[in-house]
Amino acid sequence: KRRIAIMTSGGDSPGMNGAVRACVRMAIAKGCEAYCVYEGYEGLVQGGDMIKPMKWEDVRGFLSEGGTLIGTARCMAFMERPGRLTAAKNMIMNGIDALIICGGDGSLTGADKFRAEWPGLMEELVQKKQLTVEQVAPFRQLNIVGLVGSIDNDLSMTDATIGCYSSLQRICESVDYIDATAQSHQRAFVIEVMGRHCGWLALMAGVSTGADYVFMPEKPPPENWEEDLASIVKKHRSLGKRKTIVIVAEGAHDCNLQPIKVSKVKDLLAGDKLKLDTRITTLGHVQRGGQACAYDRMLSTLQGAEAVNAVLDAEPGIPSPVICIVENKIVRRSLLEAVAQTKEVAKCIERKEFDKAMQLRDAEFTE
Ligand code: ADP
User: Fold this and answer.
1) Alpha carbon of 306 to those of 40, 129, 300, 321, 343: distances in Å?
2) 130 phi, psi to nearest 5 deg
3) pLDDT confidence of residue 318
4) Is the CB of 103 under 6 A from ligand 1?
5) CA-CA distance, 189 to 125, in Å (whole number)?
6) Residue 109 Cα, ligand 1 centroid: separation in angstroms?
7) Is 152 annotated in some ligand binding site?
8) How far is the CA of 105 from the centre of ligand 1 (A)?
């Protein structure tokens, strides 16, 4: 029986449990044996009972649980070849040659590196007499399939990552709470949201809550943003708006790549020109937590099932796929290309090619 392992890696996101559940059950339904690797690559390097066989009922109730129940970690050892050698040995000792990883671009990059090195790792294990030729013989090829778990929606070539809509929902609810008090006291709030180098959460939160101003990395504000912000806020106030909401992505910067700090935005709103009673709210980790929204439960289930199909369809020499969603269809894309395009966005931002950065993000993001 084919053995397929699933792990979650990197930052946690709501919906990761749904992906684990779908992979385990689809693997079993397809006549394979399902395994979970606990604590991301750390579990793969440590081996032992960090790699566990899973039964159908072991993932019962996973759909509605937040975070990741099989744990996640950042693992320095896996960044180095000796760590990956140990990981490869642990996989073979468990008879596993297919690995589904639900994580961000870092985790997916690591996975593809592991796949590319696999034949060399097998040779080294035999050479170092850690395993025999007979032991490695059935494991000539490593199958890797990626699932994108991230609240940031920062991977190119997919419209949504598992977790981003849950996080957006949480941000919207939080802004609604803040709205009520802001409105009562006629206050201004500067709200910092997560997203690392990606402005999707900030922009979509701004759209969804009718914020007055949004700062995001891919499309920095005009050079004279202080005046721009002041005049927009002034105009909204003159139209009778009793509150002001400014959303700042954690990776926001101006067009010269200088970080835009929430404290600076606050000082501006509170300063002589506007004189607004202004508060800062950093939403922080509530954005990651809690139950997955219906969309993420659906996405993780459909994509998890497709990941198992992709493992079973894999042919030698065909590059590792990542399971994406494009125009509402679950599709497979080249994992390496998706990661490369994501990295290209970051490079465009560094080169101040902001229009190109926007184009390379997802379709709904472009205009
Ligand atoms: P994310 O997957 O959310 O982007 P990280 O970038 O922290 O998060 O990656 C998670 C883990 O994936 C790292 O701790 C490391 O173990 C592994 N990893 C990331 N990048 C690489 C790489 N270039 N080579 C090998 N392993 C990597």
Assistant:
1) 21, 37, 10, 11, 25
2) -80, -30
3) 80
4) yes
5) 58
6) 7
7) yes
8) 7
Closest residue CA from atom 22 of ligand 1: 110
- pLDDT tens for each residue of 14-27: 999 999 999 999 99
Contact criterion met (CB below 8 Å) for 365 and 201 = no
In this structure, the residue with its CA closest to atom 15 of ligand 1 is 75
Average pLDDT over residues 125-135: 96
Mutate to test the pocket of ligand 1, among 8, 74, 148, 161 (most ligand atoms within 8 A of CB): 74
Q: Are 263 and 280 in contact (CB under 8 A)?
A: yes
Q: Which residues are catalytic?
A: 152
DSSP 71-117: -----SGGGSHHHHHHHHHHHHHTT--EEEEEE-HHHHHHHHHHHHH
105 C-beta closer than 6 A to ligand 1? yes
Please give the ipTM for the structure prediction. Answer: 0.98
d(CA 109, CA 158): 16
DSSP string, 299-365: HHHHHHHHHHHHHHH--TTPPPEEEEEETTEEEEEEHHHHHHHHHHHHHHHHTT-HHHHHHHS-GGG
Query: Which residue has the CA at smallest separation from atom 21 of ligand 1?
Result: 110
How buried is residue 96: exposed, middle or buried, by Cβ count under 10 Å (0-12/13-18/19+)? buried
Q: Can you tell me the distance from the alpha carbon of 259 to that of 262, in angstroms, rounded to the nearest whole number? A: 10
- For residue 71 and ligand 1, the question of a CB distance below 6 A is answered with no
Ligand 1 atom nearest 74 alpha carbon: 14
Which residue, chain included where needed, has tokens 């985790």? Answer: 107
Q: pLDDT by residue (tens digit) across 244-253?
A: 999 999 999 9
Q: Whose CA is nearest to atom 6 of ligand 1?
A: 106
315 is in an annotated binding site: no
Q: Is 297 left (phi over 0), alpha (psi -120 to 50) or beta?
A: alpha
Kindly tell me the burial class for residue 249, based on how many C-beta atoms sit within 10 Å of its own C-beta (0-12, 13-18, 19 or more).
buried
163 is in an annotated binding site: no
pTM: 0.95
